[in-house]
Specification:
The chain is globular. The strands form 4 sheets. Strands 14, 18, 19, 20, 21, 23, 24, 25, 26 and 27 form a 10-stranded mixed sheet that branches. Strands 10, 11, 12, 13, 15, 16, 17 and 22 form an 8-stranded mixed sheet that branches. The protein has a 6-stranded mixed sheet with strand order 2-4-3-7-8-9, with helices on both faces. Strand 26 and strand 27 form a beta hairpin. It has 3 domains: 302 residues, polyphosphate kinase like; 166 residues, Endonuclease Chain A (Endonuclease, Chain A, 2-Layer Sandwich), CATH 3.30.870; 174 residues, Endonuclease Chain A (Endonuclease, Chain A, 2-Layer Sandwich), CATH 3.30.870. The protein is an alpha/beta fold.
Length: 701
């Protein structure tokens, strides 16, 4: 009999986490424009949740509704009903938060006006804009026998209308064009008034239906199931993997609707019509008084101007060039002497990129091998890999084409790399490759040597400025040899391998971590476990953590998002304390610490989720350098002490403010401002400044 008394459903835990994200929009210390951005992140997160998680549950409910969630005992249908009930309350809270943020903008003279708030002059100007710019490109559809209900695109806004002509009732639907500005500036003598595009088209839609009487109308937005798994239909004998992925992307766009958002109140007839046409239930139609799409925020930033943004926006944060290594002209030489750790975004990713750039040119380097999951637009890394191949280096890239929502980008980059002469692997049968590892092989006088990089995050220069991750670079020979074997096994499709130091899923990562937990359990009250991750859902780890707690082991966890374990349950999980940190940067690192004295520390790509531990290729690497090990543990201790942006998971499954007598401590602010982040070694600093001075002297000459 499964015990659900100390676990909670994954989806409900995620909804609680997303409410925590929206809570940042109410934080008085968050700059005004950033509040609107946090609200937008909440909405974007919710869109993806509906497309992926609710979409997947919808499929499960149709295929096998008897399969119960092992954290709550709920079937897929029961989970869906619970989610939609929760969403009704969440949408009310969403509307309240948006109203509060909008009120703060109005106090600053920035008015997101409704039609009824427009002056006569403003209304006249808006109507003129509609007739001159919007009406010519609108496609109004009247639905009848000859004109069937059209396909509605995912996350596209539409105006839907109940029509009447010559006593006959019908319906109309019209897409709100994406190629019009998302907001329209309004004539005024003071402030920054504007109106959103969708409200203008909604108000004057009658002009597009001149022969009809408009009985009722709404703006709607459809969310479709996007959880189409390429592996479900993939024939690995197909010689053109890239073509297959393109077909998958086309098919995804036409999957079943899982949510319809309606602006304002619901009209009974329109709701019934949508249920019939989209084959959905009324519970899947959600009313919203806040915007259905937050895309207008990007244009609002430009409209408000630099002066406003500079005062109401997080300022540009300039990371340091990673722990001295960023100033070096020979990063490879430095790494041969000692290991280095970069802590994004406090350290710049530039140091790692310079390593790859140097490797592309260095005569000692014979090969560069790397696994890639997500990349930045105009990626420097890809340029360096192409240059390395063109310079005669062997370059092997495993490009995971199934990185959700980055499939098209990865397809394009894989072609660019292939054309430059790189060897490309498109993934592994049945397993997404989520590992973050790079291997540089060098020919030295006494043989081969290696520089291995293990990361907790993607090789994306843009997100490294906003995602908090670790990047470990080491010349340790044994880890290098493990990396050599790992890449050889990838090229032949062999995952049933164990390594001397690296832990790999699906082979031994899970088993090894559970064994390390057992060692701490044997120590009883002297045992210690400290984990940092994005999500905890794997039931085996949850049960093992409960066992550790029952045996007196102190367990601390920093979990950004989903936590299916309920801490603090008397006699079961009361020795477990779990925190979540949500702030300016997205916490993304995965670190696993075992023991108090001379602790064992692993870092890498894997969360403790069943998909990561059993269904993906993940890697964890031990941190062997004692200085770096202490730095990582200090980082985690500082985060655990965060009582400003930190929240504590309660036994009710919610996230609660940390109330104690300690002075306020914001860990992300600390990492941004601590002295060793802005002061480098005097000798290196003077050398850098001397070189800079000589450059400017030459420039003046």
């Amino acid at each position: 009999m499964t015990d659900y008394s100390y676990t909670q459903n994954r989806e409900l835990s995620w909804l609680n986490f997303n409410l925590r994200v929206m809570e940042e929009a109410l934080d008085k210390t968050v700059p005004l424009f950033e509040k609107l951005k946090f609200f937008g992140i909440f909405c974007s997160n919710l869109d993806e949740f509906m497309m992926v998680r609710v979409g997947g549950l919808s499929d499960l409910a149709l295929i096998d509704d008897s399969k119960c969630d092992n954290k709550s005992g709920l079937t897929p249908s029961e989970q869906l009903r619970t989610i939609y009930r929760a969403l009704r309350e969440i949408y009310k809270e969403k509307d309240e938060v948006y109203s509060i943020v909008e009120h703060e903008f109005r106090k600053e003279g920035i008015y997101n006006l409704k039609i009824e708030e427009l002056s006569k002059a403003q209304r006249k100007a808006v109507h003129k804009y509609f007739k001159n710019y919007a009406l010519p490109i609108l496609t109004p559809l009247a639905i009848d026998v000859a004109r069937p209900f059209p396909f509605l695109e995912n996350l596209q806004e539409y105006v839907i209308l109940e029509l009447e002509r010559k006593g006959v009732r019908s319906y109309g639907i019209m897409a709100i064009p994406k190629n019009l500005p998302k907001l329209i500036k309004l004539p005024t003598s003071t402030g920054h008034p504007y109106i959103r595009r969708s409200n203008v088209i909604y108000e004057f839609v009658e002009d597009a239906y001149p022969d009809y009487k408009i009985i009722s109308k709404n703006i709607i937005r459809i969310t479709r199931n996007m959880d189409l798994s390429a592996d479900d239909e993939l024939d690995y004998g197909d010689v053109d993997y890239r073509k297959f992925m393109k077909d998958i992307l086309k098919k995804r766009k036409r999957l079943q609707a899982v949510r319809v958002e309606v602006s304002g109140g619901k009209n009974e007839n329109i709701v019934k019509f949508l249920c019939e046409q989209l084959h959905i239930r009324e519970e899947q139609i959600l009313s919203s008084n806040s915007p259905l799409s937050m895309e207008y925020v990007s244009e609002l930033k430009d409209y408000l101007g630099q002066d406003f943004i500079s005062q109401n926006y997080y300022g540009n944060y300039l990371p340091r060039l990673g722990d001295k290594i960023g100033f070096s002209h020979d990063i490879i030489g430095d790494l041969k002497k000692k290991d280095y750790l970069l802590s994004y975004p406090y350290d710049s990713m530039d140091s790692f990129l310079k390593l790859i750039e140097q490797a592309a040119q260095d005569d000692r380097v014979v090969s560069i091998k790397i696994t890639i999951y997500r990349l930045a637009k105009n990626s420097r890394l890809v340029d360096s890999l192409c240059r390395a191949a063109e310079n005669g280096k062997e370059v092997l890239v495993l490009m995971e084409l199934r990185a959700r929502f980055d499939e098209e980008s990865n397809l394009n980059y894989s072609k660019k790399l292939f054309d430059a002469g790189c060897n490309i692997i498109y993934g592994m049968a049945g397993f997404k490759v989520h590992s973050k590892i790079a291997l540089i092989t060098l020919k030295d006088n006494d043989g081969w040597s290696y520089i291995t990089q293990i990361g907790t995050g993607n090789y994306n220069e843009q997100t490294s400025n906003g995602y908090a991750d670790f990047c470990l670079m080491t010349s340790n020979d044994e880890i290098g040899k493990d990396a050599v074997k790992f890449f050889k096994n990838l090229t032949i499709g062999n995952l049933n391998v164990s390594y001397s130091h690296l832990l790999q899923s699906p082979k031994n990562l899970k088993i090894s971590l559970l064994e390390s937990m057992d060692k701490e359990i044997l120590k009883g009250e002297d045992g210690f476990i400290f984990f940092k991750m994005n999500s905890l859902t794997d039931r085996d780890f949850i049960d093992k953590l409960k066992e550790a707690s029952e045996n007196g082991v102190k367990v601390q966890m920093i979990i950004r998002g989903i936590c299916c374990l309920l801490p603090g349950k008397l006699g079961k999980t009361d020795n477990i304390e779990a925190h979540s940190v949500v702030g300016r940067f997205l916490e993304h690192a995965r670190v696993y610490v075992f023991g108090k004295e001379d602790p064992t520390v692993y870092m890498g790509s894997a969360d403790l989720m069943t998909r990561n531990t059993e269904h993906r290729v993940e890697l964890l690497c031990p941190v062997l350098d004692p200085v770096i090990k202490n730095r990582v543990i200090d980082y985690m201790n500082k985060q655990f002490d965060d009582n400003v942006k930190g929240r504590k998971f309660g036994e009710d499954g919610g996230l609660h403010k940390i109330i104690n007598e300690e002075p306020p401590f914001n860990s992300q602010d600390y990492f941004m401002n601590e002295e060793y982040k802005i002061e480098c070694d005097k000798e290196e600093k003077n050398s850098f400044l001397s070189g800079l001075s000589n450059f400017f002297k030459g420039f003046v000459k």
